[in-house]
Amino acid sequence: MSLKIFAGLFLLAACSSATQRGSTNGQLTGGASARLAVDQFLGAVKLRDLQAMSTVFGTNNGPARETMDRTELEKREIILACYFNNDSYRILGERSGQGGHREVSVELKKGNLIRATTFYAIRGPGDRWYIDNMDIAAVRDFCGNPGTSRAQ
Question: Which pTM does this prediction carry?
Answer without folding.
Answer: 0.78
